[in-house]
Amino acid sequence: MRFLKPLAASCLMLFASMLVSGQAYAQVGSTTDIIMGQVTGPDGKPVTGARVEVTSTESQITRSKVTNAAGRYTVVFPDGGGSYRVQVVSLGFAPARVLVSRQGDEDRLVADLALGRTTTVLQSVEVRGARGRPREQQRGEPGASERGLNPGLVNRLPIDPGDLNALATLAAGVVGIAGTDSTPASFSVAGQPADQNSITLDGLSFGAGSVPSEALRNTRVITSTYDVARGQFTGGQIASTTRSGTNAFQGSLSYALRDPSLEFADDAENASVQQYTQNQLSVGLGGPIVQDKLLAFGAFSLLHRTDPLQSLLAADPRALQRLGTNADSVNRFISLLNRFGLQPSLSDIPAERLNDNASALVRLDYNLGDTHSLMLRGDWRGTIQDASRITPFSVPHNGGNFRSGGGGGMISLTSNWSGVINELRAYRSLDTRNTEPYLQVPSGRVVVTSNLTDGTLGISTLQFGVNSALPQESRTRFTEVSNEISRVSEGGAHRIKLGVLANEDRAINVSSANVLGTFLFNSLADFETGQATQFTRTLSSRERNVRGFNGAVYLGDSWKASSALQLTYGVRLEGSRFPDVPAYNPVVDSIFGRRTDQFPTDVHLSPRVGFSYSVGPTDRGRPLGTLRGGFGEFRGRAPTQLFGSAIEATGLPRGQSALVCVGSTVPAPDWEAFLRDPGSIPDSCNGTSQVFGTERRNVTVFNEDFGAPRAWRSSLGYNRRFAERYTLSIDVAYARGVGQTSARDLNLDTIPKFKLSIERDRPVYAPLASIVPETGAISMSGSRLSPRFGAVSEVTSELTSDTRQASVTLNGLANRAIFNASYTYTRSRDEVQGLATFGRVTGGAGGGGFGGGGGGATTAGNPNRAEWGTSDQERRHLLVGTVTVPVMPALELTAVARIISGGFYTPIVGGDVNGDGHRNDRPFIFDPRVAPDSASGAGMARLLATAPERARDCIRKQTGSVAARNSCSAPWSPTLDLQANVRPDVLGLQRRLTLSLVSINTLAGFDQLFNGNRLKGWGQPVYPDRTLLYVRGFDPASARFRYQVNEHFGAAGTRNPFRVPFQLALQGRLTLGPDAGRQQVNAAFGREGGGRGSVAEFRQRLARAIPNPYHQILQLDDSLQIQLTTEQKATLKVLGDSLQAEADTVIGSIAESLGGQSARSGDARQLAQSMRDRIEEGRTVTEKAVKNAESLLTPEQWAKVPRRIKEPFQSNRDREGQGRRGGRERPER
């Protein structure tokens, strides 16, 4: 009867595992599972030739093995689901069955079974891993920190389940980086750049940021790992797996609607609100083609979205105020465009921005026998965006139409030869991107000064003509192959693995930025008269074809050193090679000592070690806490585009060159001629001046020590359970980035030609004669060491970064609410040099805006000198929370909330001040009382009186000095999204239909509700205007620039002035086939064939699930010679009968829940939650009875009582000293 005790624990473990992600089936598909163990007979000797059948409780696929001479077996399940039913049959022995489940990310599940001679069918179930409590924060491999997000959780939350970047931001410490019209959304981990993350799908790199939501099986956000098999990143990794077919037909389909009629905005705000219509359909279906042999699954997703064009034509006075301009300035600007024949909008420009996305994925799994498993996967994606690249600062004709498409194919073969496991994977993808502009005329930028309604002067840059990034066309091809061979030692203590990885990344770009040129005008008056301050253009652009090869070899071991200590350690050797080198330029070699025809080859060896140690006393067979940590080096990937830019930047006549005209050499624009014939766009400057009008060839070379970015990372964490329902995790981490990519201009003469004494002797590297007094524009020719070349950019790996992070995470179950909340404090600093574009000449000033990070590459003097400062990626405080509240069987409420401290940004000057050819100088902040002129003094005084508090404080603390990098900070940004899920029990669907009402940007609704027309900006994105000063001229006599203060500095909404409204969305999702939660219940407690048991059957099986220590002691009195007195026997009998009556009530309630109608039609998670208190009640009753029994017996009598009675919920494996993850599982008899 001893087997009934672990059954009670199994109830608790299994049902708690279904409450939240992070439990056994939340780990679905995260890795290949290895189920292994030993079969022994009643005498303890190995049983040879026993047939072991392992069935995945999720897919119902069965695989079998025969034990060897040592009685051992090994079964491999690629993406098996993490939970398995193991059954052993051998002639002459009674069959035995056990249920094993993954606890974290262990790949070895050890199930040892002892066979008996009797013919009794063993009904014992031992659940491994699910620990009777909600646990969203997963432990993963030794030392790792991660969060698992299975579809069962994600589909209930107000978040796009197919957006991998959005899912990443649910993990503690992950900072989301918003996307723009031209850049995708991304994220940052440990202060590392966003391009140093890794996204994998089914174990190989995956470049696309989204997949069909119904195709995702599980997603893990890994923020810290020490597994040498993981690489090609210094930040974080998103590891996702796709769904496979199962032995049962299954599928799901979902539909989501967002419509302007469900948006709520004040009437006065309607013209400034981002209203849009979106329809999204996702479908996934799969099942067996041949049972247990050939399985298929397919999914597709379609999204159709339309938005009103958010351009200058759509902006109302409130939106223009946020842009730093007014209606009079914009109307005059549009009038001038019409006069020059540059109609702001054209007949082929749609009235709405169109965004159509489609993606599809098909997967086949073929079981080639007990030894091999084959997986084939194909994926496709396509995007259509009309009216792309149109910004609030531009008119509609500034954009174009974007098209992209691509797809790939993957093959995976998993083999198992007598305990040697081999996993071979290969993936190849092709992608194309193309954007065609609406207008083939040069880009134009007009700096406009406007009187704002608050009495200040705002300065903004209005844009027309072609977008300087267009036209654009690129093709990429990516191939990756990996192979890992591993062997598990007998008993499963070690798994030694040797792996190799190789990939090729090929990119073809047939366009460059600014190929049609850019005119910059300092005012509307200059635009009207055709007097441009500057004209720049990229000439001689040609197709750039570059290939990059990356490879890795790793050797590691995962060692379960003891029941408490687990280690992972190893080394990883990585290298990169770029074979398509540019042509050799002997002139560059002779002048600068650098060869243009050499790309460095980088090889590096990285060690890693991680550990997990169970600490503290045990509670019901499990440790109260776990200490984890590790140390290691991580190597990212060098951006392929760097090498692509060097292909044509050789300084040779057939290479790229840059035309820069300032002052009198700027050609007069003839817009009508440009419209008729793009060939009439100037390709030279006016006159013969070599000072103000130059065409120079840029050069990009690589330092011989250049390599991929690397980071040394370490972490230490401790998680502890308390009050049975909660887990508290505390983690500290440190990351030291080394070899970070940088560049310096070898052709910059860093000896100042003069200094700006009024700006604390700021150096200027161009002579006075190269500055245009009327505009302050500087020709870069005076700062060149060699006048034959423009910028000679040497790409190096010299920069470093330093990030310290501390996180606290609390998750659990409180008053039926399942929650996960984390707080992360981050302090991140890094080095940056002032050369940001690797020699590419930009076309003019920006209109403020926060950009990708708010800081970027800026300088206060010598741009070749590295400067430390707060990192662009730092968000000092980050709070993230998710909660699920079951209200009733048919209704639950969920929420995702974030509170993020503001990002940091750097004040800049709208113009080139130091003469290095780049518009990225930081301003000298004048004291308004001693400003060089009355206009700038008055402007600074007005700014200090009206600027937002944070911007005002930033200016004041730096008065009298050049602004420091990232010295200003934006306000905090809270967000809140809610979702109500209704699962009606109608039409016999057994609550498989979920109807959801989603509340998007709920804080904006609260803002409108509580503040009326005096909105506070709750829930709105914050993009401060970071341009403090604009260059308006230069005084040669006093050697100082004339500036105009942008009194709109620090104001929010400058990148997007349109408000994000409060909106309701409607969603529906229908699940077809077996429910995952019910499958686990049936697998653990159903009949032998997996069917569901009745109430009577469950009551019989659970009859002794709540041990009765009183009766047990009485039964053992004679055999163990406890020598109970007559009084003791009578007392134990009375207490035992009372306990049994109480236990029968609890058992009946549990049996009714498991086998009754509510279990058949209700939601599995809510069933689990309703059972939890009943199971805990039974356990508590037994534990109190044990303590009471001890008080009734003398110490000598109690010493004779078996430990299994004293510790009724202490697992058998722990009593045998085998309480490790994936440790031995011996069903009790």
Mean of all residue-level pLDDT scores: 85
> How many distinct beta strands?
52
Helix content: 10-25%
Largest sheet: 22 strands, antiparallel, barrel
Radius of gyration: 34 Å
N-C termini distance: 6 Å
Chain-wise SSE layout:
Layout: H1 4-17, E1 32-40, E2 51-56, E3 62-66, E4 72-78, E5 83-89, E6 96-101, E7 108-110, E8 113-114, E9 137-138, E10 145-149, H2 151-154, H3 164-168, E11 175-177, E12 186-188, E13 198-201, E14 204-205, E15 216-224, E16 237-242, E17 250-264, E18 277-290, E19 294-308, H4 317-323, H5 327-339, E20 352-367, E21 372-388, E22 400-417, E23 420-437, E24 443-451, E25 457-464, E26 472-488, E27 494-509, E28 518-521, H6 524-529, E29 534-539, E30 544-560, E31 565-577, H7 586-592, E32 602-619, E33 622-635, H8 640-648, E34 657-662, H9 671-676, E35 693-702, E36 710-722, E37 726-745, E38 754-756, E39 762-764, E40 789-814, E41 817-832, E42 867-870, E43 877-888, E44 891-900, E45 904-905, E46 908-910, H10 934-946, H11 949-956, E47 968-969, E48 973-982, E49 993-1000, H12 1002-1011, E50 1027-1035, E51 1040-1045, E52 1062-1072, H13 1076-1085, H14 1095-1101, H15 1109-1115, H16 1117-1120, H17 1126-1155, H18 1157-1161, H19 1164-1192, H20 1195-1200, H21 1203-1206, H22 1212-1215
Parallel strand pairs: 1-7, 1-8, 13-16, 24-28, 35-40, 46-50
Antiparallel strand pairs: 1-4, 2-3, 2-5, 5-6, 9-10, 10-15, 11-12, 13-14, 15-16, 17-18, 17-52, 18-19, 19-20, 20-21, 21-22, 22-23, 23-26, 24-25, 26-27, 27-30, 28-29, 29-34, 30-31, 31-32, 32-33, 33-36, 34-35, 36-37, 37-40, 38-39, 40-41, 41-42, 41-43, 43-44, 44-48, 45-47, 48-49, 49-52, 50-51
Helix pairs in contact: 1-19, 14-17, 15-17, 17-19
